[in-house]
Design goal:
The structure is a single chain. By secondary structure, the chain is of the alpha/beta class. The protein has 2 domains: about 10-170, Arc Repressor Mutant, subunit A; about 195-408, D-Maltodextrin-Binding Protein, domain 2. It is built from 16 helices and 13 strands. The protein has helices spanning about 10-20, 25-30, 35-50, 65-90, 105-120, 120-130, 135-145, 165-190, 205, 210-220, 235-240, 290, 305-315, 330-340, 355, 385-405, and strands spanning about 55, 60, 150-155, 160, 195-200, 225-230, 245-250, 260-275, 295-300, 325, 345-350, 360-365, 370-380. α4 packs antiparallel against α8. It is elongated and about 85 Å long. InterPro entries: LysR_HTH_N, LysR_subst-bd, WH-like_DNA-bd_sf, WH_DNA-bd_sf. One of its GO terms (molecular function) is transcription cis-regulatory region binding.
């Protein structure tokens, strides 16, 4: 099994057998012979490396692994159906009386679609899948023929997805995420627990919360792998909504950024005006915002919470001559530039806690108002973590509570 997709038809046969307790009924519903249905389930079990059904003379029942995978496979196929319906709407088509195209889609077609969507190129997709370009091209065009709509359009730099394809690839990616979780639950049931957690992390949480949670999780589990993906908020949010991330930690948005995500509050953070400890204002027992305007500013991007505070609350660009000389969201850049001269910036106190303890950055004694922001977790609505993933979330919650007490 490659890239998260077992044979889709085999999954459907398994789900019918699980629902009816009978392979013969599953065969009838899937328009297969009974030997073919039995073979489909056997091959699925081989792909997953686990027995899913307990064979009895009259009726089948589910193993522990079968119960776990049934739920995930059901959700995965539901995502494919939702994606297909959205694709039909995007293409201006209507559902015909014949079975919709997602019921005949293959794992190879889904892998190809996702690879093309991620790379924007048939050539790169073929390389990533370790297939020939003609093979990828055939799978892509057969999917279009099956769906009876255009999915791919040529562009100078590669290939673009049509709105219909964008709709269906979302369902495919969410299905892929469900299957990945199902495979990890099977692993846990077998005592292996080789799970993963894909975490999108914004700058604040990278300093203390995420490292502490990762250390606790790795210390407590032998097989877990944590993958931390850094990026800008909108990029991470899109990855979350498409199933490429399990969770996002950082500043919450008000109002919520989309209807299909849920935000969970963890703690309230405060911003501070900061500089290098050698800065002239760092020696003053009290200073004012006006005092900082005589020095060059390093500003966070406007779309970040720190940038919103600087540009919208303090309205620093409305000054006759703006002191903002540099715009950057990089903590490495901020730390390095502050060390070069008398620069000033605004940043989360928690985000600089390590640098503050090391004497590399210091908050200036400038009182601020309206500078608090809510920090928390963002999930997809309807996302159900595995037990291993839920344990990591508990560690994130635990160390966020520690962070709320203040930087150390």
């Amino acid at each position: 099994m490659q890239n998260g997709f077992p044979n889709i038809r085999h999954m459907r046969v398994f789900l019918e057998a699980a629902a009816t307790g009978s392979v013969s009924h599953a065969a009838e519903r899937c328009h297969l012979s009974q030997p073919a249905a039995t073979q489909a389930i056997t091959r699925l079990e081989s792909d997953l490396g686990a027995a899913l059904l307990i064979r009895r003379r009259q009726q089948f029942s589910l193993t522990e692994c079968g119960i776990a995978f049934q739920k995930r496979a059901t959700s995965a196929l539901a995502h494919l159906e939702t994606g297909a319906r959205a694709a039909l709407r995007a293409a201006g088509a209507t559902r015909r009386r014949r079975p919709s195209f997602e019921r005949a889609v293959t794992a190879a077609q889904l892998r190809t679609l996702i690879a093309i969507a991620n790379s924007g190129s048939f050539t790169v997709a073929a390389r990533n899948l370790d297939l020939s370009q003609p093979t990828v091209h055939r799978a892509a065009r057969s999917l279009e023929a099956q769906a009876e709509m255009t999915f791919f359009t040529a562009r100078p730099s590669g290939v673009a997805l049509t709105p219909a394809a964008e709709s269906f690839v979302l369902g495919a990616k969410l299905a892929q995420a469900e299957i990945r979780q199902g495979i990890e639950e099977i692993s846990r049931a077998q005592g292996k627990d080789k799970g993963t957690f894909l975490l999108g992390s914004l700058p604040l949480a990278r300093t203390t919360i995420v490292p502490r949670a990762i250390h606790a999780m790795v210390s407590d589990n032998d097989g877990i792998q944590i993958r931390v993906i850094d990026g800008r908020y909108l990029e991470l949010l899109r990855s979350l909504r498409e199933g490429d991330l399990d969770c996002l930690i950082g500043a919450l948005r008000d109002p919520p950024p989309a209807d299909d995500v849920h935000q969970e509050f963890l703690f309230r953070d405060a911003l501070a005006i900061v500089a290098h400890p050698s800065h002239p204002l760092a020696q003053r027992p009290s200073a004012t915002l006006q005092d900082t305007l005589a020095y060059p500013w390093i500003a966070p991007p406007r779309e970040t919470p720190g940038g919103q505070f600087l540009f919208e609350t303090l309205r620093i660009e409305d000054r006759e001559q703006t002191p903002v000389r540099i715009v950057s969201s990089s903590m490495v850049m901020l730390r390095s530039i502050l060390a070069e001269g008398p620069y000033v910036s605004v940043v989360s106190r928690h985000q600089i806690s390590v640098d503050e303890n090391l004497g590399m950055i210091t908050p200036l004694n400038i009182p601020l108002t309206g500078h608090h922001r809510d920090i928390g977790l963002t999930y997809r609505k309807g996302w159900h973590p595995t037990k291993t993933q839920a344990q990591f979330i508990e560690f994130l919650q635990k160390f966020s509570t520690v962070s709320e007490e203040g930087p150390h």
